[in-house]
Amino acid sequence: xxxxxxxxxxxxxxxxxxxxxxxxxxxxxxxxxxxxxxxxxxxxxxxxxxxxxxxxxxxxxxxxxxxxxxxxxxxxxxxxxxxxxxxxxxxxxxxxxxxxxxxxxxxxxxxxxxxxxxxxxxxxxxxxxxxxxxxxxxxxxxxxxxxxxxxxxxxxxxxxxxxxxxxxxxxxxxxxxxxxxxxxxxxxxxxxxxxxxxxxxxxxxxxxxxxxxxxxxxxxxxxxxxxxxxxxxxxxxxxxxxxxxxxxxxxxxxxxxxxxxxxxxxxxxxxxxxxxxxxxxxxxxxxxxxx
Length: 291
What we know:
This protein is of the alpha/beta class. It has helices spanning 48-57, 70-73, 97-121, 189-201, 219-240, 247-252, 264-282, and strands at residues 9-12, 15-18, 31-35, 39-42, 62-64, 84-87, 130-132, 137-139, 144-149, 158-162, 167-171, 206-209, 213-215. It has a seven-stranded mixed β-sheet, with no helix packed on it.
């Protein structure tokens, strides 16, 4: 059902969560609205019905993207003529429907990736008009957000921090039960671990995740548990090794995803990327294919 009015969830004064379709579960992600000296929308993957309702009720002065993933940027095209701020770290591919396919799914699966994100998210090319980097301060008068580069998930993943209230928009450092996701060639486990530790050092009092929403309880424990998933995956793979002879055998077990509920070829590619990264850091070399 298309909402006729916006339902916003206050986080701190001047900053609201824009709840996404499907409760923020992929392929959607919550968005965020800043109401200050200017009105800014952070991420546009909350779903077309939500974005259309928002546009009916409010004029958006600028759009800020947390990173390049289409579930966060799919509907940037609906804000044509509005400044779009993107992280500078992958600005050459940001918002580009063609080049993102190769970046996120490899050359062989780029076409399938494009077909999926077009159908599931209505993603269209919308290039950035401005870029920002680590330490940039978005000043909206009564609220100021500091950009924090937190790579590992993607090379351009950013968090935004509001120090007076200790409020962190953590985006895809999402504190989900699945744990950290690093299924692209550009993703990096060590960088992700460092990014989680960087966030822990901020001692946030509120974390708002793109897929989990507002989190205020037991934050240090939640962050540590999220970090610990990475080491637990090392052990999962070590436990699987006696049962396999090749890398393909190991991927067939789907030890992390436990199955592929959508876009199975692409999901398998992403899980294979994650598995390879763990094997590399464990110093384990498996042959590619069964004989």
